[in-house]
Amino acid sequence: MSPKPFLRIENIRKRFGSVVASDGVSLEIDEGEIHALLGENGAGKSVLMSMICGMVRPDEGEIVYKGQSVRFNSPREAIRQRIGMVHQHFMLVPNLTVAENYILGQGSALRVINDMDKVHARIRELSERYALDVRPEARIEDLSVGEQQRVEILKALFHGIDLLILDEPTAVLTPQETDRLLALMGDLVKDGKTVVFISHKLDEVMRVSNRISVMRDGRLVKTVNVADTDARGLARMMVGRDVRMELPRGPAAPGRIVLSIENLACRSETGLPALRGVSLDVRSGEIVGIAGVSGNGQTELSLALCGLLPVDSGRVVLNGQDITGLDPARINARSVAHIPEDRHKHGIVLPLSLGENTILQRYNESPFATSGMLNRRPIREHTRDLIRRFRIKSRDVDQKISELSGGNQQKLVVARELARNPDFILVNQLTRGIDIGAMEFVMEEMLKQRDNGRAILLISTELEELFAICDRILVMFHGEILGELPPDRNRLDELGLLMAGQTANVVQPPLAG
Ligand SMILES: Nc1ncnc2c1ncn2[C@@H]1O[C@H](COP(=O)(O)OP(=O)(O)OP(=O)(O)O)[C@@H](O)[C@H]1O
């Protein structure tokens, strides 16, 4: 007889108005396994996991955990039963320390650990045991995204968990941080814990999981052993068709210089030098990639280009005009599209509707407004058109964008920005959170924009994305451009060396001008 499953979900249903997020899902998780959950954007992965951790209440169905039927009314109740979840967007209070975040709202549950010294000691102990590098006194706002994620994971361990659910944990991590996280999952399992993680990255899913469940349209398609499948088969199961791993594309035909960056220097939000004299040109009809380990000035480069970070010295010239130091609205108005790295901070306004988000920068433009009044019909028609073309899974244009799945929010940002017919498109992490079927579509759209003469600067930590659509790749290290390479996968080693800051044996780009 097979052992009783650790967690059994039976015929779970969840609707949001007319959207069926879970349509009778049954799934079993074994104790001590790493179980990956795959599926297209909006397939219902996050909602399903949120029901297990008490964030969302199912309409119907049963969750049987450690042999008992359970129904959690809040994440706190789930944590009491030793189930923790780390969400796509972290739930930490930025101006508090790590330790303060952990005890926030704990009340009487903290009787056992009733003074701060003990809390700090416990955090240090767990941090050391799992090599998490988390300092209890560190303030959340001073930490990088990768560090904040480790703080979230340690928070779950601090409260004591047997089951850890991670929602797209590697989307925001560098390759090195990803390796570290995957190793951590292995360590947790060795300590008797069970891990469920959601991902769109088939290679990492294949690397660490024991079993993989694929969801589509609110249903479970299948659960497979990792040994019985491969990336191509998984992609087909997810999307329902074969996904091309290589995009066909013709050579670029670069024209005039659209964007010219000259010796740009600026500091990060925390006041440290971030760009140390960056110079580059982007011509019409080409996609220039910026590769690099994140934290080497890419964030500051994109923020400075769209007026969100002050420039210390140097110039940014767009279509022959100096735009250095202009405010974001003025830069926007000069035919610059921006697909930001952090969509919640710079891309969308969560409490607004899809329609309102679609015209964020055009709310006083014809046909969307006349004499300061919004025209609902053209806004709705334009939004509906984008939803249809980009296959954005949504209920209605008046729906709040916060109700969309993460990948569908990203698709809306990409669709909105490309629809503005910009001369220059600045992209930082194009496909973050987007499923592999939609990724193919979004990358093809970028190539179409290139062929229509747009100038595109694509900053990415995903080398595959850079190889797939860029015409040349520049490498950033310590706030400088260290070199340039063609998008040739055979030169991956050279690219890796440049990303690590080593310039020996690498051909330098010709001097600009
Ligand atoms: N609070 C909500 N109100 C309305 N609809 C919602 C809400 N939360 C989720 N949905 C809808 O439920 C469906 C499933 O969403 P879910 O976030 O689970 O998708 P996902 O598989 O995690 O997608 P992604 O890969 O893009 O993160 C989507 O159509 C989404 O718009």
Task: Provide an overview of this structure.
With 513 residues, this protein is an alpha/beta fold. The chain has three domains: 233 residues, 3-Layer(aba) Sandwich (Rossmann fold); 182 residues, 3-Layer(aba) Sandwich (Rossmann fold); 74 residues, no CATH class. The chain has 17 helices and 22 strands. The strands form five sheets. A six-stranded mixed β-sheet has the order 6-7-8-3-9-10, with helices on both faces. A six-stranded mixed β-sheet has the order 16-19-20-13-21-22, sandwiched between helices. A four-stranded antiparallel β-sheet has the order 2-1-4-5, with helices on one face. α13 crosses α14. The radius of gyration is 24 Å and the shape is globular. The model has no long low-confidence stretch (mean pLDDT 90). The structure holds adenosine-5'-triphosphate (ATP). This is ABC transporter ATP-binding protein. It comes from Aminobacter carboxidus. GO terms for molecular function: ATP binding; ATP hydrolysis activity. It is a peripheral membrane protein. It is found in: Cell membrane.
